[in-house]
TrEMBL record:
It catalyses: 3-methyl-2-oxobutanoate + acetyl-CoA + H2O = (2S)-2-isopropylmalate + CoA + H(+). Keywords: Acyltransferase, Amino-acid biosynthesis, Branched-chain amino acid biosynthesis, Cytoplasm, Leucine biosynthesis, Manganese, Metal-binding, Transferase. Mn(2+) binds at residues 28, 216, 218, 252. PROSITE patterns: AIPM_HOMOCIT_SYNTH_1, AIPM_HOMOCIT_SYNTH_2, PYR_CT. SUPFAM superfamilies: 2-isopropylmalate synthase LeuA, allosteric (dimerisation) domain (SSF110921), Aldolase (SSF51569). Residues 19-281 form the Pyruvate carboxyltransferase domain. Catalyzes the condensation of the acetyl group of acetyl-CoA with 3-methyl-2-oxobutanoate (2-ketoisovalerate) to form 3-carboxy-3-hydroxy-4-methylpentanoate (2-isopropylmalate). Pathway: Amino-acid biosynthesis; L-leucine biosynthesis; L-leucine from 3-methyl-2-oxobutanoate: step 1/4. It comes from Dokdonella ginsengisoli. This is 2-isopropylmalate synthase. Belongs to the alpha-IPM synthase/homocitrate synthase family. LeuA type 1 subfamily. It is an enzyme of class 2 (transferase).
Length: 528
């Protein structure tokens, strides 16, 4: 074993295998509550994932909605190196829709899934064993006519009879699938069981040597990464995972943890990935900023404390020899604490340098915009922290920008009673509207006054605020979800004043509504 556990990929020996990283942050990750992204945000994330070096980007489920279709198509158009994948049920319409969305891709994959476990066959699909085999095989055959790379997933594979799963996979290979995925859909398995399952499939699936075996683990019992690693140890050649482990329920296996476990314990796994590990922290932080999530301080690899030492005995050890308490080098995962303090006396060089370290390379116009907003922020805050800079660099979601902007806001809370707020909004067509309302707390009052001003029906559903830096003048990022016509819409806003941050989040929502109303009106006019 390497004493410092800092083995690099170039030291790999000849026996090592290349494990493919299949990222499903934009599909399984995005389909879970709290992580939805607009098309522009997904596109931005897809570029970052490509830069990170993932092999496959599962960009969405094209049949799910027009928005998902458009997102997959935009990613397939712009992202040229990574393979772009679209999910489809074992149904012709799903498959043809996925193929249309993927049509511009340089490298495309259609991913078909069908549940195989007794529970799903009987209670969900109402299909016999033979019907499942036939449905999967005919779906794969149709997909192979439209795309030269087809993956098949046996949903709930872990709770499927092993001999039957081997039969389904053998039929899938015969029908043309090139990757066979074994999902632990409900996060039920254990590492020993997963190892045994992959080893069993390697012994019993006909034609298995022609395909890549893949694994897709969920974290319901907190074992998704351990289970993925066990599958790799047993011979799986592809791991499906998400950044920060976001995904259905308790989430998916976390990409950064699988990748760094393979790298750090190369002595055990003898496997490498194509991930540029120094991009892990910046890419994970970009995701957190786009979806307004907080990365727990103690999160492995990318959390703020992952390389922090506070206790004296540890500090003493690290000062003598870093490897006493660190099994990875912070710089290998993109974690570099800056000693430069940015404030109102800082110039463009220091800001550009810091942004680059954080993973943001902006074009001249975008940089000048960030610089101007940075200076304005410095007038409101003594010190500007990394979180503040990331919020400035991520900027506003273009699909939520304009036409309404906030000109004036006043909010007051009354002890033991309700709160009140008044706003003045400016529309890009020149209209100015002032309104006031009372509510259950200042955020609700702000929401009601904005809703009244723009004449739309909104009810507060959820509200959260997270600090982007340290100290009493830290900026807050508000994430607010409101109910509108039976849908929950989410908006985000950043300010040193949390009520103003909430107002900006409400404005994102009303701007989204106005954009979609305009799109519908344009489409109707075009049809006439
Ligand atoms: C384990 C996973 O992560 S699977 C992916 C889960 N992700 C999602 O569901 C997000 C996107 N989903 C959606 O937008 C919708 O569910 C849609 C558009 C796909 C389908 O919507 P609807 O047609 O209204 O169907 P609904 O979702 O209510 O029910 C699912 C239907 O698909 C069928 N189905 C489920 N899985 C499969 C499959 N793999 N292959 C074929 N049919 C399937 C069900 O039996 C059910 O059929 P029925 O309508 O004949 O009863
Ligand atoms: C669609 C499949 C691969 C899935 O997400 C699961 O089974 O968890
Ligand atoms: Mg899943």
């Amino acid at each position: 074993m390497n004493a410092e556990n800092t083995t690099t990929d170039s030291e790999a020996d000849v026996a090592e295998r290349r494990v493919l990283v299949f990222d499903t942050t934009l599909r399984d990750g995005e389909q879970s509550p709290g992580f939805s992204m607009s098309r522009a945000q997904k596109l931005r994330m897809a570029h970052a994932l490509e830069e990170l070096g993932v092999d496959v980007i599962e960009a969405g489920f094209p049949i799910a909605s027009d928005g998902d279709f458009e997102s997959v198509r935009a990613i397939a158009t712009e992202v040229r190196h990574a393979r772009i994948c679209g999910l489809a049920r074992a149904q012709v319409n799903d498959i043809e829709t996925a193929a249309r969305a993927l049509q511009p891709a340089a490298h495309a994959r259609i991913h078909i899934f069908l549940a195989t476990s007794p529970l799903h066959r009987e209670h969900k699909l109402g299909m016999s064993k033979q019907q499942v085999v036939d449905t999967a095989a005919s779906a794969i055959r149709r997909a192979c006519e439209l795309c030269d790379d087809v993956e098949f997933s046996a949903e709930d594979a872990i709770r499927t009879e092993p001999d039957y799963l081997a039969e389904v996979f053998s039929a899938a290979i015969q029908a043309g699938a090139r990757t066979l995925n074994t999902p632990d859909t409900v996060g039920y398995t254990t590492p020993a069981e997963m190892y045994e399952r992959i080893a069993y499939l390697r012994r019993h699936v006909r034609g298995v040597e022609q395909v890549v075996l893949s694994v897709h683990c969920h974290d319901d019992l907190g074992m998704s990464v351990a289970n993925s690693l066990a599958a790799i140890a047993a011979g799986a050649g592809q791991a499906e995972c998400t950044l920060l482990g976001i995904g259905e329920r308790a989430g998916n296996a976390s990409l950064e943890e699988i990748v760094m476990a393979l790298r750090t314990r190369h002595d055990l796994y003898r496997a490498r990935t194509g991930i540029r590990t120094e991009r892990l922290q910046p890419t994970a932080r970009l995701l957190a900023n786009l979806v307004g999530a907080t990365i727990p301080r103690n999160k492995a690899i990318v959390g703020e404390n992952a390389f922090a030492h506070e206790s004296g005995i540890h500090q003493h050890g690290v000062l003598k020899h870093r490897a006493t308490y660190e099994i990875m080098r912070p710089e290998d995962v993109g974690c570099a604490r800056s000693s430069l303090v940015l404030g109102k006396h800082s110039g463009r060089h220091a800001l550009r340098d810091r942004l680059k370290t954080l993973g943001y390379t902006l074009d001249e116009a975008a940089f000048e915009d960030v610089f101007a907003r940075f200076k304005a922020l410095c007038d409101r805050k003594k010190e500007v922290h990394d979180g503040d800079l990331e919020a400035l660099a991520v900027g506003r979601d273009p699909e939520a920008a304009g036409p309404w902007t906030l000109e004036h806001l006043h909010a007051a809370s009354h002890l033991g009673g309700s709160a009140s707020a008044s706003v003045r909004l400016l529309h890009e067509d020149g209209r100015r509207v002032s309104e006031a309302a009372i509510g259950d707390g200042p955020v609700d009052a702000v929401l009601r006054s904005v809703a009244r001003a723009v004449g739309c029906d909104l009810a507060l559903h959820e509200f959260s605020i997270r600090a982007l830096g340290e100290g009493g003048d830290a900026q807050g990022q508000a994430t607010l979800s409101a109910r509108h016509e039976n849908r929950n819409l989410t908006g985000r806003g950043v300010s040193t004043d949390i009520v103003e941050a909430a107002a900006l989040a409400v404005l994102e929502i009303v701007n989204r509504i106005e954009h979609s109303t305009q799109r519908v009106a344009t489409a109707l006019a075009a049809n006439h």
